[in-house]
């Protein structure tokens, strides 16, 4: 028999065991194999590659609601950190308007707002994550546009926050209007509509500017804070959130001009209308509840003593409206009991008493000067 | 007998004690004269150098230690006129810097993976410890499989194998599953394996080769693959943690280690391809290697993030981390191929000729004679590639994967810790961490190099 | 007699798949088929995916209006320019960083590399620490450090540091006076060109003269005189047509002058110092590869330390230094793509970043970007190889 002694140093040193693996996934004794060695190994390697290529791991078909119920939680796509909307603290606990909305969906299904898991997503990743079914709901300050609604295989379920692009500037620059910004350096995030709105605005008003575009939001904020630019532009809600990340938030103001429409809302994937309905009606129930004055504080009382038929339909003491959604009839009660109505949710996360200090504005109810309008439960 | 002379001359009869050497030639002063102040230029340089040190070092030490804040709950502790590093900030963010958004209750799994990695690496890296083959098998084969299960939670949805694609099986087995194991899949897998084994054996036998050994090696391939899939498929009762929740040092290490482990076999194949006699194989290898070496890693990551999904069948959406891993593996494989090629070229021709004269086949020659020697020679090169890969992992933050540096930068924007020194503290901490890793590895590479050098001189 | 039949019988028994030629052809065919199949299925998938996502194909988008601004443009560009123009703006910005970075890195690298071998303990230690620290920190980390940490220490434009009232340093970058070319400026430019030409010719002539006669002319002084004197004479003759526009603070920013943006400074400094650490190591090993006898011989000929280094050691060390130097230059060029991390508008940030996000045409854009880097790599490698051939040791 032929036997080769390998140099002893070689035996002692790492990475060696990989060699046979690399040449062929084959563990049989080397000397026995004499014939057709290369051809055979090559073929078997291809079999392996082919098997790996075709072997796919996918989910079984079932309705989204069944899937969610069987896994026991709602998987919700959120941002990688935007104060007021979706932001993790040091311990990784999430809070914000978008986060609360996901909790409301979980409450409607499970009666438990904690049965939700959050997936932090980048702006680019968010739609693919929804399309591939990695997440059940996308609640990540996403602007409702026709392209997204029609050609990406998505459905927007409503508007949780009516927003628009604005500008933030240092107070000591003594600027009161965006029309005084000629010659300013503007920090913005690249690859967003923000960048194009900005160019349009300055061109329309015959002003010059210098744009400094960064790949991520954190970079934009850090550069603005370092004084690299005079103005930071993004959605106004975003501005309020980003302001908190600055070293001295009180040194900065948001200018009054709004240069674009940005209706932000939750999104689901095409192809499951029941799930679409559930997410859509969770928001509507919260809006109705605010309109009717039903809050998490008084909802138990309303269940017992309410006479208003609208309230009775909302909390499930009259009619069987939950059935149409595939949920229990107390679905509305569960949302309001566990998370609260839209106003409560708003005040807790972004409202005037929070660090973001965003007044309701457009987001007030339709009968209070805003445009938030809950569809009737009937 | 006296040695004195009458004429008054005197001859000393013992040696005079040696005078001390002139102070100009030895001692600290002389050393300084020789080394520091031997000329105008040298003196200027010395003075400038000392000034530089005086300008850099004391403020650095003051910032890192003397003026540093060591305890505190939030930014209040670190606001002040003369404040150094704000270490409570690092303390508060430490969990996120190491694990990212990995659920706190599940972090023990990451700890086990880290600990197991260290436990396996130490015997692998210290040359005097025994059982190299066993530990390297454990580290390169078993460890990745186990680490995958621990980190993700395992229990993947194995739903269809080859035959199922053609709609052949599902109908009569149904949807049954035991302990997370999908029966359809496994019936499918076993049938596919049997078919493949028979087909392979038959084909090779038909062509005149040894059908038996072909069938046997196909069997081994399917068995190994099956074991891996089984380990990933079985429900071990761990919660599923998706890769989007990973972050920090965990992601940095996952990318670096996966990159190096995957690039090594690929790099060896490419290096062999580039040195092959066959023109098409050689050409393909050269194109592959030079292409990836010619483009920056960041474009490779853009390629993996935006272009790769377009090249895959519709509906196949590999997650972001996996896509980045594919990009990093291809990229580092090209560099690894060049490192390995260097080793192959260093093997004297006599080794090849000797092996061939012994009647070894090409693969036996490579596996038993050439590669063991060549790879041993290039271990420093491999470690150096690992260092640059480790440094390059920072680039994934540009495609929104939060590695150590990305997580650090995200933590800069936390309003709770917004102080003038937060930024510098973060950079100081990250700098120390990266330096320790890279410097440690480069020392190891030097150590191996020296060891190899002596063994060559004997 | 049976032995004679051996080979024939043997050949008959051995299967043709054991024939090396057949095997090699078979293997190559399989490799080719696999590559073609992969390419074909990628193309098929890409076609389906693009159709499903309603993404346009082709290079027509290069003629569309880009609609975004860029803050450093070496050629005229505005929001109404095309994507094609944005591409060239990004490319030129990449080349600018690469060229400036390479020059800086070479200078620092040689100084530090020589410093590592210095007899001076202080210089040696500082050089060693420099190399070890900078080599072992990720380049992106260093870029972010230079950008964020150094930038936030800079004053705002109003409090900018002013040098002679002409140059201003602030967190908006470095603002330099802009030269304005009046009538007759062309003559001055020609004079500068002529001076450069004369300097090159004079160097050649004095070198050959030195070879013949052994006498050295004061080349440096004569050259300096030429370089300064000729343009000066031209300026006087034409009546100083070149004036400088001093930047002024108006509103938010400086108006007038040339602005060197901080992104450029941070990126160039970080890349140059990082790459210099590697170049220093190449220089050190190059110098160490020159036999000690060479410097002893040079000293015994009466050459001073500086002369020994410049005339004897470095020319020989260059042969060892050039090949790794080439790959360091390539690395620097490729690392310039990290610009995207700090918002410097290089090729990747402008084209593979903004333009890609706006058009969604990933395949075309990434292919173009990768192609450009490949081309840059090939060009750099070709130039350095040509140089390498010139300095390589010519053996018998």
UniProtKB/TrEMBL annotation, chain B:
Annotated transmembrane regions: 36-57, 112-131, 137-154, 189-207, 214-234, 246-271, 283-308, 320-344, 365-387, 421-441
Stored Pfam families: BPD_transp_1 (PF00528)
Subcellular locations according to the entry: Cell inner membrane; Cell membrane
SUPFAM superfamilies: MetI-like
Primary location class: membrane
One of the protein's GO biological processes: amino acid transport
Membrane topology designation: Multi-pass membrane protein
Cellular component terms (Gene Ontology): ATP-binding cassette (ABC) transporter complex
Listed InterPro entries: AA_ABC_transptr_permease_3TM (IPR010065), ArtM/GltK/GlnP/TcyL/YhdX-like (IPR043429), MetI-like (IPR000515), MetI-like_sf (IPR035906)
One GO MF term: transmembrane transporter activity
Top-level taxon of origin: Bacteria
ABC transmembrane type-1 domain segment(s): 249-445
Entry keywords, A to Z: Cell membrane, Membrane, Transmembrane, Transmembrane helix, Transport
Family assignment from sequence similarity: Belongs to the binding-protein-dependent transport system permease family. HisMQ subfamily.
PANTHER family for this protein: INNER MEMBRANE AMINO-ACID ABC TRANSPORTER PERMEASE PROTEIN YHDY, MEMBRANE COMPONENT OF AMINO ACID ABC TRANSPORTER
Protein name as catalogued: Amino acid ABC transporter permease
Species this protein is from: Ancylobacter dichloromethanicus
From TrEMBL, chain C:
Molecular function as annotated in GO: transmembrane transporter activity
Pfam short name (any one): BPD_transp_1
Record family assignment: Belongs to the binding-protein-dependent transport system permease family. HisMQ subfamily.
Annotated membrane topology: Multi-pass membrane protein
Gene Ontology CC: ATP-binding cassette (ABC) transporter complex
Protein name: Amino acid ABC transporter permease
Keyword Transmembrane recorded: yes
Family annotation (CDD domains): TM_PBP2
Major subcellular site: membrane
ABC transmembrane type-1 domain mapped to chain residues: 91-384
Subcellular localization, as worded in the UniProt entry: Cell inner membrane; Cell membrane
Keywords: Amino-acid transport, Cell membrane, Membrane, Transmembrane, Transmembrane helix, Transport
Gene Ontology biological process terms, A to Z: amino acid transport
InterPro entries in alphabetical order: AA_ABC_transptr_permease_3TM, ArtM/GltK/GlnP/TcyL/YhdX-like, MetI-like, MetI-like_sf
Chain segments annotated as transmembrane: 25-43, 86-112, 133-154, 187-205, 217-240, 260-280, 338-356, 362-387
Organism: Ancylobacter dichloromethanicus
Keyword NAD listed: no
């Amino acid at each position: 028999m032929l036997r080769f002694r390998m140099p002893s140093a070689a035996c002692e040193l790492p990475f060696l065991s990989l060699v046979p693996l690399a040449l062929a996934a084959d563990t049989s004794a080397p000397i026995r194999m004499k014939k057709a060695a290369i051809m055979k190994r090559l073929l078997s390697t291809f079999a392996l590659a082919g098997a790996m290529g075709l072997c796919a791991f996918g989910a079984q078909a079932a309705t989204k609601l069944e899937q969610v119920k069987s896994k026991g939680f709602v998987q919700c796509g959120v941002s990688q950190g935007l104060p007021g909307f979706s932001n993790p603290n040091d311990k990784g606990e999430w809070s914000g308007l978008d986060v609360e909305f996901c909790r409301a969906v979980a409450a409607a299904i499970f009666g438990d707002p904690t049965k939700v898991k959050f997936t932090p997503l980048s702006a680019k990743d968010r739609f693919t994550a929804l399309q591939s079914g990695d997440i059940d709901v996308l609640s990540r300050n996403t602007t409702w546009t026709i392209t997204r609604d029609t050609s990406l295989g998505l459905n927007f379920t409503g508007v949780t926050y009516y927003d628009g692009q604005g500008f933030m500037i240092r107070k000591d620059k003594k600027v009161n209007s965006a029309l005084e910004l000629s010659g300013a350096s503007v920090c913005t995030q690249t690859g967003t509509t923000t960048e194009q709105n900005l160019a349009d605005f300055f061109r329309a008003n015959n002003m010059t500017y210098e744009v400094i575009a960064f790949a991520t939001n954190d970079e934009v904020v850090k550069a603005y804070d370092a004084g690299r630019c005079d103005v930071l532009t993004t959605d106004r809600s975003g501005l309020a959130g980003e302001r908190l990340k600055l070293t001295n938030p009180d040194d900065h103001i948001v200018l009054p001009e709004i240069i674009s429409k940005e209706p932000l809302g939750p999104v689901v994937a095409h192809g499951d209308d029941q799930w679409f309905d559930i997410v859509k009606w969770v928001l509507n129930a919260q809006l109705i509840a605010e309109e009717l004055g039903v809050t998490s504080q008084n909802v138990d009382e309303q269940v017992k003593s309410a006479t208003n038929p609208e309230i009775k339909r909302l909390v499930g003491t009259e009619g069987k409206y939950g059935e149409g959604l595939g949920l229990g009839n107390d679905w509305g009660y569960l949302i309001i009991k566990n998370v609260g109505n839209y106003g409560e949710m708003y005040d807790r996360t972004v409202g005037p008493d929070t660090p973001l200090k965003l007044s309701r504005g457009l987001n007030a109810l339709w009968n209070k000067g805003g445009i938030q309008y809950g569809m009737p439960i009937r | 007998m006296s040695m004195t002379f009458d004429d008054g001359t005197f001859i000393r009869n013992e040696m005079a004690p040696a005078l001390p050497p002139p102070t100009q030639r030895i001692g600290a002063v002389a050393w300084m004269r020789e080394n520091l102040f031997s000329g105008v230029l040298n003196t200027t340089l010395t003075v400038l150098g000392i000034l530089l040190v005086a300008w850099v070092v004391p403020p650095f030490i003051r910032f890192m230690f003397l003026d540093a804040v060591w305890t505190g709950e939030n930014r209040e502790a670190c606001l002040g006129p003369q404040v150094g590093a704000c270490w409570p900030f690092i303390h508060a963010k430490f969990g996120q810097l190491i694990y990212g958004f990995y659920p706190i209750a599940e972090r023990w799994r990451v700890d086990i993976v880290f600990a197991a990695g260290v436990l396996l690496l130490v015997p692998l890296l210290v040359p005097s410890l025994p059982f190299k083959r066993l530990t390297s098998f454990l580290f390169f084969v078993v460890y990745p499989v186990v680490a995958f299960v621990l980190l993700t939670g395992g229990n993947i949805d194995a739903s269809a194998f080859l035959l199922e694609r053609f709609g052949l099986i599902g109908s009569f087995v149904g949807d049954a599953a035991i302990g997370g194991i999908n029966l359809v899949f496994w019936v499918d897998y076993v049938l596919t394996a049997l078919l493949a084994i028979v087909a392979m054996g038959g084909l090779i036998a038909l062509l005149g080769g040894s059908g038996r050994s072909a069938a046997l090696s196909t069997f081994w391939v399917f068995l190994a693959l099956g074991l891996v899939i089984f380990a990933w498929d079985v429900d071990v009762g761990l919660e599923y943690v998706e890769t989007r929740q990973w972050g920090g040092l965990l992601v940095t290490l996952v990318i670096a280690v996966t990159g190096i482990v995957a690039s090594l076999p690929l790099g060896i194949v490419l290096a062999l391809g580039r040195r092959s006699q066959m023109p098409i194989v050689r050409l393909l290898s050269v194109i592959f290697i030079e292409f990836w070496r010619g483009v920056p890693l960041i474009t490779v990551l853009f390629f993996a993030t935006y272009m790769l999904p377009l090249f895959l069948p519709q509906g196949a959406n590999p997650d972001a981390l996996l896509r980045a891993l594919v990009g990093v593996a291809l990229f580092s494989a090209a560099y690894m191929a060049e490192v390995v090629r260097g080793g192959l070229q260093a093997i004297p021709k006599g080794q090849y000729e000797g092996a061939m004269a012994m009647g070894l086949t090409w693969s036996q020659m490579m596996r038993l004679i050439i590669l063991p020697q060549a790879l041993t020679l290039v271990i420093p090169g491999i470690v150096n590639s690992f260092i640059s890969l480790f440094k390059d992992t920072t680039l994934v933050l540009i495609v929104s994967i939060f590695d150590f540096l990305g997580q650090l930068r995200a933590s800069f924007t936390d309003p709770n810790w917004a102080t003038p020194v937060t930024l510098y503290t973060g950079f100081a901490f990250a700098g120390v961490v990266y330096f320790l890793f890279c410097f440690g590895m480069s020392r190891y590479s030097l150590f191996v190099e020296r060891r190899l050098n002596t063994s060559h001189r004997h | 007699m049976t032995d004679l039949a051996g080979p024939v019988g043997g050949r008959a028994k051995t299967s043709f798949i054991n024939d090396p030629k057949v095997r090699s052809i078979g293997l190559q065919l399989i490799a080719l088929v696999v590559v073609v199949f992969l390419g074909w299925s990628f193309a098929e998938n890409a076609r389906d995916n693009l159709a499903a996502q309603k993404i346009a194909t082709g290079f027509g988008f290069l003629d569309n209006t880009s609609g975004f601004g860029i803050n450093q443009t070496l050629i005229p560009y505005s929001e109404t320019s095309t994507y094609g123009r944005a591409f060239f703006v990004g490319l030129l910005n990449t080349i600018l960083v690469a060229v400036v970075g390479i020059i800086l890195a070479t200078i620092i690298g040689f100084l530090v590399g020589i410093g590592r071998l210095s007899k001076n303990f202080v210089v040696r230690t500082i050089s060693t620490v420099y190399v070890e620290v900078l080599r072992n920190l990720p380049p992106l980390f260093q870029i972010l450090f230079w950008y964020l940490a150094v930038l936030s220490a800079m004053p705002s434009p109003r409090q900018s540091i002013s040098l002679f009232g002409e140059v201003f340093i602030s967190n908006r970058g470095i603002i330099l006076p802009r030269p304005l070319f009046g009538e007759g400026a062309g003559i001055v430019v020609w004079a500068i060109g002529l001076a450069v030409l004369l300097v090159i010719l004079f160097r050649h002539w004095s070198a050959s003269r030195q070879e013949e006669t052994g006498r050295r002319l004061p080349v440096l002084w004569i050259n300096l005189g030429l370089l300064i004197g000729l343009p000066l004479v031209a300026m006087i003759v034409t009546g100083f047509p070149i004036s400088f526009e001093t930047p002024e603070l108006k509103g938010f920013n400086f108006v007038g002058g040339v602005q060197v943006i901080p992104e450029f400074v941070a990126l160039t400094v970080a890349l140059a110092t990082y790459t210099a650490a590697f170049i220093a190591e190449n220089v050190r090993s190059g110098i160490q590869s020159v036999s000690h006898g060479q410097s002893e011989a040079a000293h015994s000929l009466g050459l001073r330390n500086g002369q020994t280094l410049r005339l004897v050691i470095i020319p020989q060390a260059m042969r060892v230094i050039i090949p790794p130097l080439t790959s360091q230059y390539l690395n620097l060029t490729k690392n310039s793509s990290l610009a995207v991390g700090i918002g410097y508008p290089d090729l990747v940030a402008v084209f593979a970043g903004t333009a890609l996000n706006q058009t969604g045409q990933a395949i075309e854009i990434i292919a173009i970007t990768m192609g450009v880097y490949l081309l840059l790599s090939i060009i750099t490698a070709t130039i350095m190889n040509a140089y390498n051939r010139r300095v390589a040791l010519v053996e018998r």
